[in-house]
Write a structure and sequence with these properties.
By secondary structure, this protein is mainly beta. Helix content is 12%, strand content 49%. The protein has one domain. Strand 2 and strand 3 form a beta hairpin.
Length: 84
């Protein structure tokens, strides 16, 4: 079985918190396929919010790590948060 993920859309918005930080919401489409399985392909959409700041296990605010995100997402995040 093979899984393929593609970006379907981007949406930016300001946080409702007092920080007013920019949030990037990305909608992904995941497709699982196997040429030997007549029940496939299976397609699922999901949304992920990317924020500049995160909270670590000790409750401290730290820069969020988005290094596992696609390069395009990282590039957009860099532009959104460049002036912060």
């Amino acid at each position: 079985m093979q899984k393929t993920t593609s970006i379907q859309s981007f949406y930016t918005r300001k946080s409702r918190l007092e920080t007013g930080e920019w949030i990037l919401q990305v909608t992904y489409e995941d497709v699982w396929d196997d040429p030997d399985d007549d029940d496939l392909p299976l397609t699922k959409s999901r949304s992920v919010d990317y924020r500049k700041m995160d909270v670590d296990e000790d409750g401290n605010e730290v820069l969020a790590d988005h290094s596992a995100a696609p390069q395009l997402v990282q590039d957009i995040c860099a532009v959104l948060w460049a002036d912060d």
